[in-house]
């Protein structure tokens, strides 16, 4: 492989690039995690997170990857032998299901073809049919990172209400939080699961549970054993800005900075930036004559775009060639779509020119790997960006 100059283009759908501001904020001496200085940091981030989850209820922060927060949601609310309802949106829904199954939970997994989000009508029908109210939780992945489909959480909430079902509602926002509009309180989500390494623009290593009163009440009577993940102890000690164990202090410095950046840009501007970049990416895919994996335009992700390879072409071979020639990392296909799709991440610290650079790499890679396509994707993306310019950039003096 030739020596590669310049910055690497990290365009996987998370971990996403870390802004220099966040890197600098983390480059700090460690402090006593039982000191008053730490308590100020703890309180700032624990409170500050709430704006991003759009909640006034407790948010707990674990020093773990997102998988830990998945497990925490389950072990704090459910008991072995319980039934839950999930939707097969893709690889990550499948993994969350496996964790539930390992704890002896029966999962009613609504089958899906990995080309759309969870279907609110199918969820409503299952809940209506559950006369015995055996379903204890509805668990949905908001942004399915393996496919680029975003489920309609507000509509799923309405479906649960329309069925008059008391199930808890748990949502994985690991790849949507701070990139796609999300409202924990308004949508009456009971547990929102999230992670640091995507829209929050931080390194991997922090995960989150936002917890409703109903979920907190369930955690007092459910039967699954837990220790490290236990909410009760965590929330009690968090009240003073501390953690029940050694916290990931420097990641919390980064979180404080990332929350400030999100607040400065404004969440609505952040969301529309993601939508604009996603629309430009889809315009490029269309111009190349390739297909976006997510079939439902209303559910195409603002965070990433999964692109289907033409039959008999290997997505992994294409990604390898593109990485070697152009120093860009694209996301691999996972699970059922392994080697059949590649994923372009356009989340977090990403702007127009970063995206256009990435799309140039994708387009040149298609040519280099001999993948049949039309040229002109980057031009189409530029036209889409110009058409949707909602004045996000600073005006030129
Ligand atoms: N859920 C979703 C939607 C994800 O995208 C990921 C990781 O990419 C996970 C869960 C698992 O999180 P982690 O890899 O941080 O444990």
Give your account of this protein's structure.
This protein is α/β, with parallel strands linked by helices and 397 residues long. The protein has 2 domains: 9-16 and 266-387, Aspartate Aminotransferase, domain 1 (Alpha-Beta Complex); 20-263, Aspartate Aminotransferase, domain 2. 42% of the residues lie in helices and 15% in strands. It is built from 13 helices and 14 strands. The protein has helices spanning 20-26, 36-53, 66-77, 91-102, 120-129, 153-162, 213-221, 231-238, 249-265, 267-288, 315-326, 352-368, 377-387, and strands at residues 9-11, 59-62, 83-87, 106-110, 135-141, 143-144, 149-150, 168-172, 191-195, 207-211, 291-292, 304-308, 328-332, 341-345. Strands 2-10-9-8-5-3-4 form a 7-stranded mixed beta sheet, with helices on both faces. A 5-stranded mixed beta sheet has the order 1-13-14-12-11, sandwiched between helices. Helix 11 (315-326) packs across helix 12 and helix 12 runs antiparallel to helix 13. The model is unreliable at 393-397 (pLDDT under 50). The structure holds pyridoxal-5'-phosphate. Pyridoxal-5'-phosphate is lined by residues 14, 65-67, 92, 141, 145, 172, 174-175, 195, 204.
Can I get a quick summary?
The protein is an alpha/beta fold and 397 residues long.
Taking the alpha carbons of the first and last residues, their distance comes to 44 Å
Bound molecules: pyridoxal-5'-phosphate
Count of the domains: 2
User: Which ranges are low-confidence, i.e. pLDDT below 50, for 5 or more consecutive residues?
Assistant: 393-397
Instruction: Give the integer mean of the pLDDT values.
Output: 96
